Inverse folding.
């Protein structure tokens, strides 16, 4: 991309949103601001903390270095900012007036619209820098897992955009949780449209996949199994590296762009949030919004919405556990249901993770986060209400956060309190209408 | 909706886009500026022009009055502007720099992004005023047809939003072309999510539907048949009126909001388009952009992209023909393939119409519009290119316009001409990935 002075100017112009806010120049890292000591990733073999050298066989070096960073602010390279601009950042901050009217609540509800990205979710925020660093370091292929398909399509698209920008060819190979692969065929097509190769996981293309299939040919899969497959592929292919869409410190750092933008947007409108809400699977969209906001608005409550089918935050045990069901990767310290926990096939595939990002668990164990777990039917009902009032169909994952926001708004109505709720609107549900169809037909399993 | 002075202010503030452009206060009507005499709609029984009284049994009065208007500018009621604001207007004007770079063309390509509406297309521009006038006049239900499902979901959503605004209950009943109903089940779910009742057309719920089914139980349907069913339902239900998503003068007037906004957006950026491009089924999104632009930029070429499977503009005969295959409705004067023309089941359901809006045909017959017809495979290839370069997946209908824009940009490259192409980006293709899947699998029928 040749930046002439003309295109520079017009970039800068189009970079400005309605309030003159531009794309952040730095990420925020919560590590120096943790309430509890940092818990390192450990090796299951030695029980010792993983070193950067241990991770570099799996991840690009720049990403590994970020993983171990204790710097509060980390500069965002200019080319990555350009790519963020290309995918539609700064994302809008929108007030849900029609939802408020429908609820007859004194509360004000705002969403940070991460659904406007090319693949419909916040996942591009970390996919772009991950693909960028990989391509810069000569990696030829990124392998990854995906639940609902949000992450896989974000990485496929980002690899494509980075390839165009750097005039190279970065491929993607995606292992997609089988229950989502079957429920959401369109996500698969979207990934292929961006040039990715996609397998249903467990697949018969890896040893770990074959093992799970031999035990149960109808295994619906899980994020844990798919991670194992993608890791195995990266380890056995010299030119490939692995890419993870959540959980890691580095991913949470990338996602901080959500919160940093939001702070600026709230500031110019003179809004002070009382509640910060996000859904939690691995934890990255929640952390992306909540961590920067926590510093700016220390009085605000942090509310994490999760699935009752996979209640790691509210019922998980805080301990070291394998990050993946296949026990190939390292152990992380988080709230876990156990790496062998069988997660029901809820439509919110992105929330089907047995554990939690260590940084999120750090704040949770300090009492700084309030978890709320929701059943599938009430979540889709919240999605229907949002659709009918605001014309926005949330992803089932995101609908958990909307459900929490609605509950808080109704509590405000009962208690006659003024509340200002800010929600991470992590993704749209246009590929999840099969779940909505089951909900409308009354055939939804209420996990 | 109670507009306090505070909410007024914040509405006005959020109404402004990055260039301070606000929602137009008037629609534009091409009738006074036609190159040829206006051709009235005629009654098939009498052969005489239809009068307003003839249409009022079918449509809300306000709409009928608009249908016969010869005023150049028509005020947009404040409540409709409020609803336009709610659905995300002013829509963005975006330059496709990455596509230009990929094509290595000196041409500049801009799109007017109608895909950002809640249901993903330009159709809400007319659905909102139609639902608004119906509700104001005490209509309880709107019946309609839909091809790809864009129109049906736009009307369902708009009826919902209008019901909230006016504190009433306006229902929708949608007859969806069976080939799309089968290919695009998610559109059906979206309509239901907004509260609509949806039938596959031909259906066994109307006399005309039963007739078509008795001749061929596998009839894939067409817009013409579905129109007949929706009209029959409206005529036989006292409290229902019919709603049409294209073709009518009134619809083209509503869609002029696209072009009026675009003129303002081009002006502040000092852009002078040389080519105005849109896809044509009935003709409303094309006319919506092209008609106002034609007055402001008389030197610009108007290019209409259509399906080779349904080439009404390039191969149709200019004459009076039934607007619907069932011959229930009136006759219109347009470029027609014949009301009994069997249209192949291309994925671009919205282009499967045997005739053309009279106002579009008026300009076409005067040599003011250049039609270009495209085969299905090259259209999906254009969609893939746009996805990989810009991260935007166009609807198959819209991909016809993108194909035309790419061709014009490549012609500019050959001839070393400076060209500035403005495209009506009528809708996204996130519900059309089955077509893309067939394209990627090489199983697409190249109609």
């Amino acid at each position: 991309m040749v930046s002439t002075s003309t295109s520079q100017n017009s970039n800068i112009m189009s970079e400005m949103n309605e309030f003159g806010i531009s794309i952040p120049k730095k990420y925020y890292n919560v590590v120096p601001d943790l309430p509890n000591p940092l818990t390192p990733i450990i090796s299951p073999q030695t029980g010792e903390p993983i070193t950067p050298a241990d991770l570099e066989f799996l991840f690009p070096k720049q990403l590994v270095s970020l993983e171990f960073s204790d710097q509060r602010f980390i500069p965002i390279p200019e080319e990555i900012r350009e790519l963020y601009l290309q995918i539609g950042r700064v994302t809008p901050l929108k007030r849900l007036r029609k939802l408020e009217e429908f609820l007859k609540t004194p509360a004000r509800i705002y969403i940070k619209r991460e659904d406007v990205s090319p693949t419909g979710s916040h996942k591009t925020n970390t996919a772009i820098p991950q693909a960028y660093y990989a391509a810069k370091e000569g990696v030829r292929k990124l392998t990854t897992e995906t639940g609902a398909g949000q992450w896989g399509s974000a990485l496929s698209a980002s690899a494509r955009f980075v390839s165009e920008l750097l005039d190279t060819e970065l491929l993607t190979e995606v292992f997609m949780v089988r229950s989502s692969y079957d429920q959401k065929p369109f996500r698969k097509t979207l990934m292929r449209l961006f040039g990715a190769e996609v397998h249903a996981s467990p697949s018969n293309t890896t040893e770990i996949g074959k093992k799970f299939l031999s035990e149960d040919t109808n295994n619906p899969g899980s994020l844990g199994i798919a991670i194992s497959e993608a890791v195995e592929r990266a380890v056995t292919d010299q030119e490939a590296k692995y890419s993870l869409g959540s959980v890691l410190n580095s991913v949470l750092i990338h996602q901080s762009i959500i919160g940093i933008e939001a702070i600026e947007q709230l500031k110019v409108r003179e809004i002070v949030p009382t509640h910060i809400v996000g859904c939690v699977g691995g934890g990255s969209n929640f952390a992306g919004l909540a961590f920067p906001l926590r510093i700016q608005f220390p009085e605000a409550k942090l509310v994490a919405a999760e699935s009752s089918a996979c209640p790691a935050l509210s019922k998980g045990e805080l301990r070291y556990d394998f990050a993946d069901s296949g026990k190939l990767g390292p152990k992380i310290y988080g709230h876990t249901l156990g790496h062998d926990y069988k997660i029901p096939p809820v439509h919110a595939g992105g929330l089907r993770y047995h554990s939690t990002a260590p940084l999120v668990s750090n704040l949770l164990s300090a009492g700084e986060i309030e978890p709320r777990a929701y059943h599938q039917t009430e979540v889709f009902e919240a999605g229907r209400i949002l659709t009918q009032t605001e014309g926005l169909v949330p992803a089932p994952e995101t609908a958990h956060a909307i459900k929490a926001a609605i509950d808080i708004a109704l509590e405000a109505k009962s208690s006659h309190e003024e509340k200002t709720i800010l929600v991470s609107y992590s993704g749209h549900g246009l590929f999840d209408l099969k779940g909505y169809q089951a909900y409308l037909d009354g055939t939804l399993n209420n996990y």
Summary: Residues 249-269 of chain A form the longest helix (21 residues).
